[in-house]
């Protein structure tokens, strides 16, 4: 990871990148001061500080973190859980893996503070199966934190107790959806549940549960330690703090970058990533497989929730995937639709059948066998998925397709076998 | 040879986390199997020991792509098939691996040493195209480099065998 901006303005504790980051080293960099601060004050004060910082969920949905903490806290007294969603399966994204393998204690500290805020005694980290090294690092970090009295019973002599268990995923992208993740921990198929009730009221085994992404939880210690004013100053008036960007594709320097909100996508690609390796820029996929595909002229959009939202750009998990002009946007979208078709759980018809039909038409288009009416159907099926799918997977699965139709419709139409031919009966049915 | 029933019993007994057991037990049982799968006998034993129905165990096991109900090779070669790796030359790497191993995606070599699988994202897009063999990640691959890596595993296996 590199940061062109000053490391004093970094949310992530730089200088900790070693084969195995030790607890001592983390504490040398000010680690665990935030937990001590939090425990010496009230849970309400912690939630207040996070709220003042304006932290929003970094998993993709961007829900205000303090509001979620408060919802869990507001439940009647009783058992409640904190779950770290480390099922990072979004193609193009690798930020959570980086946090877990290089700064595991920042995540553990964030979880402990969140648990104190909501009144939880037990936490889980749901780590995808594809990250065995992250699972191993987190296990070692948990053992070290426990031995130092920073996890387990009576943390730092405060009377507050909280412990964490690692739970391994088993190769299902859908388990990143929070209710599917709950089902998975409960030993069932990782299929989504109807909301409401939301996990904040009725989560793991029916108990109130806080579920946050790795990056979100890792943002908490610096906010509690250095204050909400410092944190807000890092970003823009609309979006606060920094964002981890997973940059990949046809750029000179692929990698993970911490960028302040307000940085434009053009700066991310050219200043951080060093520009294109060869050729000219054709398209950029922003937000991962469930994100959008945009042309070069959209890149002056700043990384900001409002500005991106107005242009239909989803920041998502922070993936930026660059394609030069030798790439086919259609092939790229086909890959994403194939991915979602494989990962769809089949529970609801719009997702299950919509993806099948979308896949069929894209393959047909790439084979030069589609007609113009097929492209209209493709758009119609995808809109249905976006509007009617049961969970976020199906609702977002067509984002790359719809955005590519918006900006690169010519590419689709050029692949149709006869621009003037009437649609065959099958395609118009 | 599948996991012994005794091993299944030990794994279930060791999983003191109680409620959060089934998926983790399935993964542990599979890891302890030299053929990297969960056998029918193991399913029966897990259902019996956890006090859940066999259909519940099958339902969970069949949902997750990592869990196999059929025997596989000693080493699982996972090739990332998503867009960043595909754009970076995954297809050429995959073809080279298929030729070297003599199997197509999903197949197991005749000597039972390797199973070749596709995987959705290894979180290594900064070094695409990437593959994972068991728990080890390899990135920035060319077809030649991928073949060399497979051959190095072949040699390790032979050394282990003759040692």
TrEMBL record, chain A:
| Protein name in UniProt | NADH-ubiquinone oxidoreductase-F iron-sulfur binding region domain-containing protein
Family classification: Belongs to the complex I 51 kDa subunit family.
Xref: Gene3D superfamilies = 3.10.20.600, 6.10.250.1450, NADH-ubiquinone oxidoreductase 51kDa subunit, NADH-ubiquinone oxidoreductase 51kDa subunit, iron-sulphur binding domain
This chain's source organism reads Anaeroselena agilis
Q: Which residues form the NADH-ubiquinone oxidoreductase 51kDa subunit iron-sulphur binding domain?
A: 330-375
Q: Looking at the keywords, is Metal-binding present? A: yes
InterPro entries per record: NADH-UbQ_OxRdtase_51kDa_CS, Nuo51_FMN-bd, Nuo51_FMN-bd_sf, Nuop51_4Fe4S-bd, Nuop51_4Fe4S-bd_sf
Taxon lineage: Bacteria, Bacillati, Bacillota, Negativicutes, Acetonemataceae
Please provide the record's keywords in A-Z order. 4Fe-4S, Iron, Iron-sulfur, Metal-binding
From TrEMBL, chain B:
| Record Pfam families | 2Fe-2S_thioredx
Check the record and name the CDD domains matching this protein.
TRX_Fd_NuoE (cd03064)
Q: SUPFAM superfamilies from the entry?
A: Thioredoxin-like
Task: State the needed cofactors, names only.
Answer: [2Fe-2S] cluster
Q: Which UniProt keywords apply?
A: 2Fe-2S, Iron, Iron-sulfur, Metal-binding
Kindly give the PANTHER family that the UniProt entry links to this protein.
NADH DEHYDROGENASE [UBIQUINONE] FLAVOPROTEIN 2, MITOCHONDRIAL (PTHR10371:SF3), NADH DEHYDROGENASE UBIQUINONE FLAVOPROTEIN 2, MITOCHONDRIAL (PTHR10371)
* Family membership: Belongs to the complex I 24 kDa subunit family.
Q: What is this protein called?
A: NAD(P)H-dependent oxidoreductase subunit E
Lineage here is: Bacteria, Bacillati, Bacillota, Negativicutes, Acetonemataceae
